[in-house]
Design brief:
46% of the residues lie in helices and 20% in strands. It is α+β, with helices and mostly antiparallel strands.
Amino acid sequence: MSSLTTGLYGSTLGSILGNVNDAVSGKTSGIDVSTIVSEMMQVERQPETQLQNQQSTITSQVSALTSISTQLTTLADSVNSLRDILGAFSQNTTGSSDSSIVSADADSTASAGTHSVIVSQLATISSSYSGYIPSSTSLAGSQLVIEYGSDPNNPSRTDTISIPSSDTTLQKAASYINSGDYGVTANVVTDSGGSRLALVSKASGSAGSLTVTSPVAGFTTTAGKDAQLTVDSVPVDSSTNTVTGVIPGVTLSLGAAAPTTPVLISVEPDTSQASQAIETFVTAYNAVVTSINGQYTVDSSGNEGVLAGDSMLRTLQSQLLDMISTSASGGGQYVNLQSMGIEMQNDGTLQINSTNLSKALSGNFSDVKDFFQATSPAGWGQLAGQQMQQLTDPTLGPVAADIAGLNQTSQGLIDEINDFEVQMTAVQSQLTTQYSNLNTLLEQYPMQMQQVASQLSSLPDLSSSKG
């Protein structure tokens, strides 16, 4: 029996004896059965309190482990991002010596290099407009025939547009054209000379050139032109000012014609995204290590964290430190994180030496990339990814297994507490009956004493007897 239980038992017993003495001496008419039973149940429930305390500790442990598990998942994601061949290390950035003439974007398939581009002509869009149409005249009931392409004798497409007879104004005719699936958009242009119907091709370049015929009005057309440029001295014709496929993985955006001005387009690895991915990894790793370290920190009351006695946590801490210290031969001159500026501190966390990392990324990007992504021999990213997969396994991972074991123990305590509650119900009923019976006897005691006193007083006075 613990000192707490012993003290509580002594206090309760003293209270009960006091109640009985008061009843016997006549100070009270009986005892307070409800209070006595309540105090006795506090003593009886001491084992249950200990079980509940154990369960509360397990709940705190599971909560702490769940938080660490979430942080491990975030760390695993950051490692996978570093070794993803389509991730941050595959992104490119572009530059232009004159972006007003031509700019560029590059996807992950583009190769690093510099290209010379000369823009001789921009692509234009064909348009056609009618002569002035008097207000007394409309296109209602007439047909417009629109042919597309640079060769009127061999159009790539023909639209025959029949204007409804109810569309008696130019605006209604334009609205009807725009509501259909035609290769032009229409609008009405009005000036001091009157109103005209204007058509603009939806396709740029020579393929979108218009030839318009109408029985009501003649149309004047400006032909569409293709963009003309050379890329690394190779002539290129494009129907739009957005040029793809000429440089693999690169999209050129033409802004102006400058036949005598070569523009240099550079494609190089996006070191900023690679650096950000490394920073994300370091942040995720430090979050896990800081949480683990916190479990072994003694607070002002001299207590450690709820997981301080969990041997699994020490093992996890050791595994993470081993992962960070692992050397790999797949990264050229970079054999470990330290060699590229990712340095371990005394508390096990990581810190980035910005100067060294920047130098590695700008001067030896391919080696850094290989360090994280090489598969034969395996680079650091490959080895770390495999280890993180084991640590975060939802069934076999050490944290997951620890949580499962604690949950099982917690359920056992819940069952034990429930069984104990059933016993306490019976004990409370028994105590209530016992102390109710005692109370009945104590309530009858004064009457019995009066009866005894009365009987004694009726006896002969033996001191005066001569017999």
